[in-house]
Amino acid sequence: MTSLDPRVGKVTDRIIERSKASRRRYLELIAAEADRGMRRERLSCGNFAHGFAASGEDKPAIKGLRGPNLGIVTAYNDMLSAHQPYGRYPEQMKIYAREAGATAQVAGGVPAMCDGVTQGQPGMDLSLASRDVIALATAVALSHGMFDGVAMLGICDKIVPGLLIGALRFGHLPMLLVPGGPMPSGLANKEKQRVRQLYAEGKASREELLAAESASYHGAGTCTFYGTANSNQMMMELMGLHIPGAAFANPGTKLRQALTRAAVHRLAALAKNRARPLGEVVDEKAIVNAAVGLLATGGSTNHAIHLPAIARAAGILINWQDLAELSAAVPLIARVYPGGSGDVNDFHAAGGMAFTARTLLDAGLLHGDMLPAGADDFCAFATNPALDGEELRWSEVPASRDPTMLRPVAEPFLADGGMRLVAGNIGRAIFKTSAVAPERWTIEAACRCFSDQDQVLAAFQAGELDRDVAVVVRFQGPRANGMPELHKLTPALGVLQDRGHKVMLITDGRMSGASGKVPAAIHCCPEALGGGPLARLADGDIVRLCADKGTLEAVGVDLAARGPAEAPAPPVGTGRELFAFMRDGADDAERGASAMLDMMEQSL
């Protein structure tokens, strides 16, 4: 095995050292749960009888403790295209469990909202908070003590992080995520983007826009761009939490069904032997592997928030400096839309996760000695599954089948992973350079300040932004309004940039996991609410954003000497007032933007 790159080793060692106390407390928790926690054999007869009363033909096996009982936590709904395929999974998985001498029950459901539906709408204010709701719902589902292993059915943006955060409270149990796969490719991404920008300029009708969007998002499965949902799948593979190669097989195929069956059989074997519990699989090496994969493939900036939150749930402390140093060590080897022309189906056809894992392992950029749940050895994740008759077979992908989309580490698209930490008198923020042309990595312009994205679009339509401009959208942080994505701004800002202007976005909110070609300093900490420096910027201030130097500065301005701008009223309507307690308790984006992680840590 290739020796680990010393730069990756340095970051890993620093995370291990920083996390010593919190990781020790977490491991003590799950050891105590394994030793003294709730299990079927410890339930009273009344408790136990309730747990198998409606289990049909599996009732004798569950009652007689004949083999492991697997809990299924499902994010199924049939409005969200990525999760619609999960509707039939539980009945199939029960059959697969019986084949392996096990049983399975649906432990519970978690919500799964679609950012594609809520993007730019009031419901988007609930998006990030839904991750914590999912974690809480997962804990409720697993609290019955009926299960020896856990299968997680979830795939999209906040859903996978939420499932993991909740399941890590039950980290003494083995767990696998069971993906559903991306929908087949639809309308070409460049054409979709072209119609969006025409609509932003008033040159395409709503009917034309809807036709383009419907041709792009057209069936069951995840959206095919490389946003947060598909970045989730990549990260879960490199953390060893999938069956190898499970990420990007399409729904409704025999291969997808065979991979689900393999996941159930594998989980049954782990549960029978009480092997590879989740809390031991998700260690510092697994977290670093996820970060390396994210950077190497140009994945979603949302994971600069989710990965610290997942890590903290396992007692591991990482920050944006860690990500920035890994980014400097890890080259960009994939160009997937919006960072390239092809989508995740094209990426998979080019060699996908198998080639990605192999070239990163060969370069010493992944921890090949980590403990995966989905295979005996991590090297299995450098192989690609296919059906040989009815049997699954895995094989290596020795070379990229499309070097315009996927390249070896020795011939990258960029020398670094393209996720930079920028910091200065405005705060700390993330700049995803991998999707931005290098000539735009340094931008200086006078700022125009807004308190929501609709104000930006109104100014754009009025022609007020038709110049070099630093668009500041503040009071979008986790405590202000729940930190919505601001993807609604992408077409308008893209139009300004295409007109030849120098344009940047600075915000304490999020962009989409499909962050695009406009330079953006996002997730700015501290957020504007509460008097952060972002709240002290004024129209006309000169702002300089430089990815090369890692700076985010208001030039020649003493922000501390100014009072903050007035914050908007808290959001009301569409259920947003129900989440006020989560917003009030949320921590900074760099720590995971969560209301519950601090309290969780204090309890250990």
Based on the model shown, name its key terms.
604 residues, alpha/beta, Rossmann fold, 4 domains, eight-stranded mixed β-sheet, four-stranded parallel β-sheet
Shape: globular
Low-pLDDT residue spans: none
Top-tier CATH class of the largest domain: Alpha Beta
CATH topology of the largest domain: Rossmann fold
Give the biggest sheet. 8 strands, mixed
Compute the number of strand runs.
14
CATH architecture of the largest domain: 3-Layer(aba) Sandwich
**pLDDT averaged residue by residue:** 94
**Class based on secondary structure composition and strand pairing:** alpha/beta
Distance between the termini: 37 Å
Q: What is the helical fraction, as a range of percent?
A: 25-40%
Radius of gyration: 24 Å
Domains counted in the coordinates: how many?
4
